[in-house]
């Protein structure tokens, strides 16, 4: 099975077949990860650099672990502490690393389009987008899809709600692309100031500003963080006010007459977009999402490497 692309820049560039191939390969790697020895030799002659220009806990550790489980050699680069502070450009930094015979680049960057820029200049090196600005976070959407399928089955016809800061969320955009391509219904809920006006028509999604009605509609609610670091203007009155209108609480969930699946990509701001008792409840698959991220990233790296044997 082969992907139609040499890079993973976004879900936008993937076909439904690509997405199915990644998810089914991830299922095979998930089985590997249940074994006493959680390692395969699939990428033992491959060297991967993890290039993080922006902070990360889950994505960074997950990629590094995925690479180790695949027996790849890994190098970790953080912009802080590097020669970026001396004025070195992104392209010069990457070209210097690649001259040491590195095969693949995993990159997180605060600038939307940074991985696309690299892919244009380095067409022969596989580039994996680990989150670029407010654009896309494709492996997050893939692990979210994997976790939904694991919990409630095929995405076709499922009702998925994304709650919160849609405007600044790369997780939201990647999820919308993926869920629509795979036949799910998508609804967005949050303050009108955090949901772009164009999005309803552009992506054929529903918008419901009343959170209780939106929760009543969905099978799965994916709760997003308020991205305060990306907001340069006041878009809602206060975090307290936000919590009162759009915070997912156990009281609100008890008022709808069905049990929905609760997701969150992390990091969580407890008491703002989600209350602790909901995040830690049996309805929540938040830590399953993190667990599944390793298998999904193993699948992405393996498929982009062009290797023909899983090695298991
Ligand atoms: N979900 C996510 O991208 O988390 P990190 O920022 O910790 O990687």
Structural commentary:
39% of the residues lie in helices and 14% in strands. It is an alpha/beta fold. The chain has two domains: 11-136 and 291-305, 3-Layer(aba) Sandwich (Rossmann fold); 138-289, 3-Layer(aba) Sandwich (Rossmann fold). The strands form two sheets. A five-stranded parallel sheet has the order 7-6-5-8-9, with helices on both faces. The protein has a four-stranded parallel sheet with strand order 2-1-3-4, with helices on both faces. Strand 6, helix 7 (199-203) and strand 7 (206-207) form a beta-alpha-beta unit. Helix 1 crosses helix 12 (286-305) and helix 5 (138-152) crosses helix 6. The longest helix is centred in the C-terminal third of the chain and has 20 residues, at 286-305. Phosphoric acid mono(formamide)ester (CP) is lined by residues 56-60, 131, 137, 140, 265-267.
Summary, kept brief:
By secondary structure, the protein is an alpha/beta fold. It contains 12 helices and 9 strands.
Full CATH superfamily name of the largest domain: Aspartate/ornithine carbamoyltransferase
List of distinct ligands in this structure: phosphoric acid mono(formamide)ester
CATH class of the largest domain: Alpha Beta
Tell me the number of helical segments per DSSP (H or I, 4 or more residues long): 12
Percent in helix: 25-40%
Helix and strand element order = HEHEHEHEHEHEHEHEHHEHH
CATH topology of the largest domain: Rossmann fold
Distance between the termini: 16 Å
Any idea what the radius of gyration is?
19 Å
Structural class call reads alpha/beta
Total count of domains: 2
The tally of beta strands, per DSSP, is: 9
The amount of beta strand, in percent, is 5-15%
Q: What's the mean pLDDT score?
A: 95
What order do the strands of the largest sheet run in, or round the barrel if closed? 7-6-5-8-9
Low-pLDDT residue spans: none
Going by CATH, the architecture of the largest domain would be 3-Layer(aba) Sandwich
**What would the principal axes of the Cα set say about the shape?**
globular
């Amino acid at each position: 099975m082969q992907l139609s692309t040499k890079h993973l820049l976004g879900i936008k560039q993937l076909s439904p077949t690509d997405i199915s191939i990644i998810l089914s390969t991830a299922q095979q790697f998930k089985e590997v990860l249940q074994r006493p020895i959680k390692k395969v030799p699939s990428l033992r002659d491959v060297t991967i650099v993890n290039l993080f220009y922006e902070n990360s806990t889950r994505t960074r550790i997950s990629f590094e672990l995925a690479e180790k489980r695949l027996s790849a050699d890994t190098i970790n680069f953080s912009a802080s502490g590097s020669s970026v502070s001396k004025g070195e450009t992104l392209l010069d930094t990457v070209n210097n690393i690649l001259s040491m015979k590195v095969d693949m680049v995993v990159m997180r960057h605060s600038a939307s389009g940074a991985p696309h820029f690299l892919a244009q200049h380095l067409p022969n090196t596989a580039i994996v987008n680990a989150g670029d600005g407010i654009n896309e976070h494709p492996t997050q959407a893939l692990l979210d899809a994997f976790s939904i399928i694991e919990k409630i089955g095929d995405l076709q016809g499922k009702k998925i709600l994304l709650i919160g800061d849609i405007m600044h969320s790369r997780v939201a955009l990647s999820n919308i692309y993926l869920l629509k391509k795979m036949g799910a219904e998508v609804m967005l809920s949050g303050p009108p100031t955090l949901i772009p006006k164009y999005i309803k028509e552009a992506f054929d999604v529903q918008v419901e500003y009343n959170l209780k009605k939106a929760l009543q509609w969905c099978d799965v609610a994916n709760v997003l963080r308020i991205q305060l670091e990306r907001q340069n203007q006041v878009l809602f009155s206060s975090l307290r006010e936000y919590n009162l209108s759009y915070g997912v609480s156990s009281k609100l969930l008890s008022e709808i007459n069905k049990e929905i699946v609760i997701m969150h990509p992390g990091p969580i701001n407890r008491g703002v977009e989600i209350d602790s008792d909901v995040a830690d409840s049996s309805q929540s698959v938040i830590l399953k999402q993190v667990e599944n991220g390793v298998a999904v990233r193993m699948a992405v790296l393996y498929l982009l490497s062009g290797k023909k044997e899983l090695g298991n």
